[in-house]
Amino acid sequence: MKKTKSKSRVSTGITGVDSMIDGGLPHGSVVGLSGPAGVGKSIFAMHFLLEGAKNGEKCVYICLEEPRENIDRNLSNLKFGSQILEFEKKGKIKILNFSYNDYEKIHKDLFHKIAEDNKVTRLVVDSFNGFFTYTTGVASSESTEQNILLRKMISNSFDLFRKQGLTTLLTLENDTEFPNYFNHIVSFMVDGEINLDFLSFGSIERRIFVKKMRWTKQYDSSLPFEIGKNGISVKKEE
Ligand SMILES: Nc1ncnc2c1ncn2[C@@H]1O[C@H](COP(=O)(O)OP(=O)(O)O)[C@@H](O)[C@H]1O
Ligand SMILES: [Mg+2]
Largest alpha-carbon pair distance within the chain? Predict the structure, then answer.
């Protein structure tokens, strides 16, 4: 199959995902990772950070809401969790976790602080909703003024990420039963969106689907995936 490699690719660290998107995320792109609670977004993010660190890249993980103990507990569930902590000690992975109280003090120039360190190549914001809901209040389709403000803020932060050459993964909390207007706006603005979801066939199955990926010949149907000690593995459909 002929590939459309107009941009160099950044491996997600998950082989089965990379092969759905021409080998990885487009370098310098801003990609949303959407899905409901517990589907595997944060674990996906960990693969992405670890892959960067293994390549000698410097990676930043901004985590909102989760206290550090929870991050550590989640990492201890994964075989590669200890590698992430090793890379953190070496300064290759920076884990910045904020409670809303801390966050209030620094949110204004947080993105700029990251951008100042031009050695950083990978950024994860987990979750991007949390970040903006706090800053602007909840977006609703009724308030035009607020939506314009929100779009401007999102657009400014994306410009900053792109200017820095960061490849950025933003987790987006969503639930098909309760569509969320913020995610709706973000879907149009990101360069790509990977969706993780649960499907129920009597038993629950997880599925991954690439909704959008600029500069990429994307895989056009969903695939099942599993989570285990080694994190996420995408299964090939028979
Ligand atoms: N070692 C493991 N084996 C099997 N499943 C696991 C393991 N570690 C985590 N999980 C699954 O991953 C889920 C959490 O994934 P996470 O990435 O935190 O979700 P999200 O960030 O989308 O809310 C847990 O609910 C659990 O089902
Ligand atoms: Mg999470």
Answer: 52
